[in-house]
Design brief:
The protein has 13 helices and 15 strands. By secondary structure, the protein is an alpha/beta fold. The strands form 3 sheets. The protein has a 7-stranded mixed beta sheet with strand order 4-10-9-8-7-5-6, sandwiched between helices. Strands 1-2-3-13 form a 4-stranded mixed beta sheet. A hairpin with a 4-residue loop joins strand 2 and strand 3. The two termini are 30 Å apart.
Length: 427
Amino acid sequence: MTRDLFGRHRAVLPDWLALYYEDPLEITHGEGRHVWDAAGNKYLDFFGGILTTMTAHALPEVTKAVSEQAGRIIHSSTLYLNRPMVELAERVAQLSGIPDARVFFTTSGTEANDTALLLATAHRRSNSILAMRNSYHGRSFSAVGITGNRGWSPTSLSPLQTLYVHGGVRTRGPYAHLDDREFIDACVDDLVDLLGHTRAPAALIAEPVQGVGGFTSPPDGLYAAFREVLRERGILWIADEVQTGWGRTGEHFWGWQAHGRSGPPDIVTFAKGIGNGMSIGGVIARAEIMNCLDANSISTFGGTQVTMAAGLANLTYLLEHDLQGNARRVGGLLIERLRAVAAQVPHVTEVRGRGLMIGVELARPGTDEAAPEAASTVLEEARAGGLLIGKGGGHSTSVLRIAPPMSLTVAEAEEGAAILERALRSI
């Protein structure tokens, strides 16, 4: 049945629509931190639909909220008052750390970043954007235009002029040999020099932890130092929190808070985990920025009643059960366990991460060369052992991406680490 579905998939869907595994997997249902395929095989899920199943599969509180709301009304558009949308916006604004915050809901992280770029360029009257090397911000025309990862950038055409900045990758590039303080200073000097050669850009957009790029991040404080330079010139700071938001990194509720010395970003984008699988994205910005558009705008599907009900229930569950604290505790144990394994596997060059956002970088032994074939081998072996993980990387890297639902237990973390250890030793 799965092979027949694969054939039908290939016949009607684009060739560039990537599928994991030599024998692609059809997931039919899930519960907690586990999913099942069409053949009845059970897997521990350490990728959560690309960091989207944030709390748990089939979380009763979320499914109940969706079912009850669907029984009343599913959708009406933003042309009408929407109580669940207002209630979720109030909570998100309060949690954002941005003064006088306004919230606009979209259907995805890509659309959220599109909206942030629209706001920044309109507010600043500039179509120039600063972005980080190795970054990823979505698959739309404008988002691809600012993506600094060649593997996810199919065209050089763009409505924006993009200038790429050093700093998103700590362990590679011209400043990798420096200590953290020197690294930050060098990146700031590079930014200042760059700004001396161009008209003032509208904004810098940056992921506090680069997601598709392999869960890599700069030293804490880099974006705070950038912020001081940007503020002097009126340039906005957009924090792309599509993958890092809602406490996944454990240490902070938002990834930008590791760089919060100079205050919050002007704009924050979010998506993925807040809906626990429902299509929710959004933008948070100061009122003067959010309200700068001088033409009509609506959203047909952003903020529908059923997705907002899911978001409210999911966020309530996350806060009441301190899943940020759980990500910090269980994620810390998982990182240390994987580092102990990595010390015995020549292909592993680094285990990095924060909370339940962990990257395992692979290279050909004795070199810094990417080992994509090794990453594929581990992905297949982990699946055979009953574990689903992701992969990514850029800048000539191969990285295994690990991001389970944030309700992961210590026992499940140990189980997953044991399966991954066997998969890594099979390279």
